[in-house]
Amino acid sequence: MMAPMRLAGTLVILTMAFLSGLRPESWDPCVQVVPNVTYQCMELNLYKIPDNMPISTKELDMSFNPLKHLGRHSFSNYLELQVLDLSRCEINIIEDDAFHGLNQLSSLILTGNPIQSLALGAFSGLSNLQRLVALEISLASLEDFPIGDLKTLEELNVAHNFIDSFKLPDYFSNLTNLEHLDLSKNNIQNIYHGDLQILYQRPLTKLSLDLSLNPLKFIQPGAFKEIKLHQLTLRSTFNSTDTMKTCIQGLVGLKTDQLVLGEFKNERQIESFNRSLLDGLCDMTIGEFEITFFREFSEKTTDFLNCLANVSAVSLSSLDLSELPKFSSDLRWQYLELVRCSFENFPELMLKSLKRLVFSYNRGLSTFTELELPNLEFLDLKRNALTFKHCCSHTYFGTTRLKYLDLSFNAVIIMTSNFLGLEQLEHLDFQHSTLRQASDFSVFLSLKNLLYLDLSYTNIHVVFHGIFHGLASLQVLKMAGNSFQDDSLPNIFMGLTELMFLDLSNCKLEQVSQGAFDSVPRLQVLNMSHNNLLFLDALPYKPLLNLQVLDCSYNRIVDSKGQELHHFPSSLASLNLTWNAFSCVCEHQSFLQWVKDQKRLLVAAEQMECASPIDMQGVPVLSFRNATCQMRKTVITVSVLTVFVVSALAILSYKFYFRLMLLVGCKKYGRGESTYDAFVIYSSQDEDWVRNELVKNLEEGVPHFQLCLHYRDFIPGVAIAANIIQEGFHKSRKVIVVVSQHFIQSRWCIFEYEIAQTWQFLSSRAGIIFIVLQKVEKSLLRQQVELYRLLSRNTYLEWEDSVLGRHIFWRRLRKALLVGKPWSPEGTADAESNQHEATTAT
Ligand SMILES: *[C@@H]1O[C@H](CO)[C@@H](O)[C@H](O)[C@H]1NC(C)=O
Ligand SMILES: *[C@@H]1O[C@H](CO)[C@@H](O)[C@H](O)[C@H]1NC(C)=O
Ligand SMILES: *[C@@H]1O[C@H](CO)[C@@H](O)[C@H](O)[C@H]1NC(C)=O
Ligand SMILES: *[C@@H]1O[C@H](CO)[C@@H](O)[C@H](O)[C@H]1NC(C)=O
Ligand SMILES: *[C@@H]1O[C@H](CO)[C@@H](O)[C@H](O)[C@H]1NC(C)=O
Ligand SMILES: *[C@@H]1O[C@H](CO)[C@@H](O)[C@H](O)[C@H]1NC(C)=O
Ligand SMILES: *[C@@H]1O[C@H](CO)[C@@H](O)[C@H](O)[C@H]1NC(C)=O
Ligand SMILES: *[C@@H]1O[C@H](CO)[C@@H](O)[C@H](O)[C@H]1NC(C)=O
């Protein structure tokens, strides 16, 4: 039933998908990124704006559709649009009021449309537009661009067009919020004084102007005089040293917060650098100076830096600088950045004013040399392959004000001092450098203000437990990729009471000592991934009252030991247990169930797969069925119980087999059908006495008694036990037990006696007569508790080998046997003298 219906459903869906391919507007093909808010209709071969999206749509990506033509009121269905991307929509024509009503629109992207006709009122109504990106729209001049009404515009990007004049049109007086004007990769060759006229009337002091990649040949000297910009970028703008020199001189009088010069890696035109090239810099007022990608830039040509004495920040990156010149001491630089230069020696920097030094990605150096920078607060020396031989103290860096120190991705760092004089340090990063002697003493002892410490992958082998002493303010500690003695995490976090983030991933950890987290009660993030933990509760969770994120992925966790999970932090919001060695067998079912119960916390729960047993490999852990175990458990319990009951029954029926037979027999024979007067139980050792005395006296005397004796009366071929019961007990009125030393010692006799007792009980006859043949040792008798009790409570006959004794014995025995004997002619003699004669044993 199900299969055909499903098939039919699939067919319907396929047909609809096919039809939708033919008529795109009839079907909603756009991707809903955020429901009712963000839709992506990229590259769907749409010819017009789809009209079936919610009117509340705020972000719409229509890029790479052949719209070709934007008519009036093209977006009247989506008046709440804030971001509209129309990149590469082959748009040729934009009519008046195309964006009518989009007064929420803040960002419009028109990149890559070969616009031929742009109506004067094309952008009218965009009363809130802040960002207009119009690269590659075949724009030939700013003058013709109808954006004069976009008073809220902050960013105008018209790079990669054919603009050949830098004349800023009059409408710029309306663009009072403009902060970014990107004119790079246009065709501007000359800049004249009049081009910036509008900026004199309406200064745009926050403007960042990018003129990179224009073939600039000439800047009229004084064109920028008194102009204040935030940033001016001129990269790969000059195709010769001559033009560069004259153009820079032409910038005389410019005030700018930042000047960016240089080239692009793949757009290098200047062949040789000439020391007078940047002389013009002396005539400008520059806040920060940046120069990048200049070939042939050597220390001999760095004189120009003297023109930059008053700048606050200098950045020299990707230059062929092998050495720095000696700086004059009146430089006022506060920030210096030297990145990706080809220094051969660590530069000698004597800059009293310097607060921030970034010296990174400089290959080709080997050893760090001491600094003398008394005001330095921020030192970034990452990725230089440097060796530090005496780290770290205030004399090493020549400052006591250091707050930020980054020595990551270097070569070897030898720890010889515990940051003496660097007590201000707040951020310290050593990652991926090789630390030596870090575990020999309390290296961080002075750093009571340190907040952040990264020691990841520094080859530390932690032996000394006091390694982190002194870090009283530390909040973040990254120890990934190191190792610990015995692969066990000792209690090394004493005093780190502020710690919130701890990364111990990739540390080969197998165990965690019980007190390890006792002193980090504020811990929020604990990363234990990529270790060798076998149990989830290898960690002592009890002190971690604020833990929110726990990453135990990539371990070998199979189970929990049970106790610690009770202390599992209730504050936890994220638990990553992916890539562990989950064993999906019933043995671990309570752990697996616990894991399933934490589903709300689990990260990528669907990626948690069983690693064993083989038939469960790759099966999601969460699909492990508890019920299977329950069933298996029930089956096992039931079978065990059954086996137990059956065997108990078997043992019982084996043990009480004879009793059962007796019971059956009692019902069958009933009373009064006895063939014998008495069945005699005796030990074969006493057979002589039985034959010669008992049988002679009772069977040959008067009255005549018929005894049942096994040697004589048992039916051959029948099991002895069956004979005992059928012939002996069932057909006899009474049982005579001949008690002697041998009788007590014979297990068979005792067995017969026990059966006799049961028989007496079942047939409710007072029928057992005890004859004590010889004195039995009391101690021996006591072993047969029942018999002993009976003999001490009841009367019994004692055999005496004297004439008188015999006479009394036989009289009493006959009398006892006569009780209940049915009348017979020969047996009347003493029948009426039925008196009780007994001896009470003591
Ligand atoms: C989307 O908008 C429709 C109609 O305005 C509304 O019914 C629906 O609940 C909205 N969906 C979401 C996820 O906001
Ligand atoms: C400035 O904006 C006003 C009002 O939108 C407009 O009338 C005027 O033409 C604009 N000025 C220029 C130079 O475009
Ligand atoms: C620089 O540009 C001019 C004009 O575009 C051209 O004639 C000249 O060959 C270029 N020089 C170099 C070195 O590319
Ligand atoms: C530097 O360039 C200028 C102009 O191109 C030239 O006159 C001067 O000789 C050059 N000086 C050096 C040292 O190359
Ligand atoms: C730096 O500023 C001082 C005064 O503030 C001035 O005398 C000096 O000429 C300036 N130096 C340069 C290179 O602009
Ligand atoms: C834990 O560390 C591993 C590798 O070191 C990393 O991939 C993972 O993102 C970290 N987890 C958290 C929660 O930061
Ligand atoms: C574990 O999950 C967390 C939270 O999503 C994530 O940040 C972390 O990267 C994951 N760990 C690994 C090793 O991917
Ligand atoms: C799964 O088993 C555990 C213990 O073995 C039990 O506490 C839990 O209630 C069971 N869950 C279900 C859904 O059967």
TrEMBL record:
Q: Which domain of life is it from?
A: Eukaryota
The protein's UniProt keywords, in alphabetical order, are: Cell membrane, Cell projection, Disulfide bond, Endosome, Glycoprotein, Immunity, Inflammatory response, Innate immunity, Leucine-rich repeat, Membrane, NAD, Receptor, Repeat, Signal, Transmembrane, Transmembrane helix, Ubl conjugation
Q: Where in the cell is it found?
A: Cell membrane; Cell projection, Ruffle; Early endosome
* TM annotation in the entry: 635-658
One family from Pfam that matches here is LRR_8
Q: What is its main location?
A: membrane
| A GO cellular component entry from the record | early endosome
Q: Name one GO molecular function term.
A: lipopolysaccharide immune receptor activity
Q: What GO biological process terms are annotated to this protein in UniProt?
A: defense response to Gram-negative bacterium; detection of lipopolysaccharide; inflammatory response; innate immune response; leukocyte activation; MyD88-dependent toll-like receptor signaling pathway; regulation of tumor necrosis factor production; toll-like receptor 4 signaling pathway
Task: Please give the InterPro entries that the UniProt record associates with this protein.
Answer: Cys-rich_flank_reg_C, Leu-rich_rpt, Leu-rich_rpt_typical-subtyp, LRR_dom_sf, TIR_dom, Toll-like_receptor, Toll_tir_struct_dom_sf
> Is Repeat one of the keywords UniProt gives this record?
yes
Boundaries of each TIR domain copy? 674-817
Q: Where does the UniProt annotation place the signal sequence? A: 1-24
Report membrane topology. Answer: Single-pass type I membrane protein
PANTHER family recorded: TOLL-LIKE RECEPTOR, TOLL-LIKE RECEPTOR 4
The family classification in the record reads: Belongs to the Toll-like receptor family.
What protein name applies here?
Toll-like receptor 4
Q: Which organism is it from?
A: Galemys pyrenaicus
